[in-house]
């Protein structure tokens, strides 16, 4: 692709936080951009996630000892990390790579790559939200990770050391200090860790919508249609074929989240992408006002105060895109929330399930297709999509403009496996 973007037309597939931020960043770079999605902007995983934005998430999902946890994942369908038996045969190749990524040396390498990508992740939203006149969409409150048992806190010590090596600022709190920080919590916690330099969106769906609105006001096009494939020329895709007709383009960004795998494969980048099914329960009139999000590694969920109420989101269920939701997992989140917050009002609670696009090594795929230089890949962010939306968009725009993104892109290559 020419280094002069003026007049070049990029089709961005996927209107979640990654796709919308990529579209806005490309537009700011001077490209003409069409955003393609079968749904409205933000309706997928972006609409129901935990809404956290920070740079402390440098611990991969697979850690040492993961192999011995697999039987428990299969035995407990309501556990924090669960695998559906019926999906195991299809999941097995991904699961083997996942366990291989949990070796001590590999975890260190992955953590370094995560830290490099997350450096400046929160600040990267500033120019995009300013352009959308929505700088109030992010609250910089920090967040706190709570432990209900001394054993749970001890088990997490290696991960705290990993964060310390990456320079993540945090403070360990005794129960009284936690009570002072977050008085709405029940006195049931043995210890907590406070991360002061973390923010959260007050409404993750509305945030994507206002960014998409700014993109459209600046001349961008949103094309509502399912993608069927591509018209490939000698130098790469020349058009995106959709159910509403072709969209001619000079380049393509694949940012379709959990639906990216077949699109990437057609464009020369077969990847071991899988789907984590995450749940939330939301309390519209909680009767409490936590000062900051509260997270648990023991329970694998976060309670985030939003303009919509209190959202309790998280857990991991490996079960693919087709199986129906297991709403009992959302009920487990509600049970935890009632224990944590004794004054919580639960009337009118709603449930949600969405799909996280996950690579076995917890690193997203970001960069050019190994086959076509005019194809850019931006998916597989797992739990960190909201964190890395603006950061990923800036990297994609720099690559498309043939500029140095200021980052070693090797760890995020599609052909790293």
- The rounded distance between the terminal residues' Cα atoms is 26 Å
Indicate the overall shape: globular
Give the averaged pLDDT, no decimals.
95
CATH class assignment of the domain at 1-54 and 104-139 and 200-272 and 360-417: Alpha Beta
CATH topology of the domain at 1-54 and 104-139 and 200-272 and 360-417: FAD/NAD(P)-binding domain
| Uncertain regions spanning at least 5 consecutive residues | none
- CATH homologous superfamily assignment of the domain at 1-54 and 104-139 and 200-272 and 360-417: FAD/NAD(P)-binding domain
Quaternary structure classification: single chain
* Amount of beta strand: 25-35%
Q: Percent helix among the residues?
A: 25-40%
Largest sheet: 9 strands, mixed
Q: Decide which structural class fits the backbone.
A: alpha/beta
Number of helices: 12
- CATH architecture of the domain at 1-54 and 104-139 and 200-272 and 360-417, by name, is 3-Layer(bba) Sandwich
- Number of distinct beta strands: 21
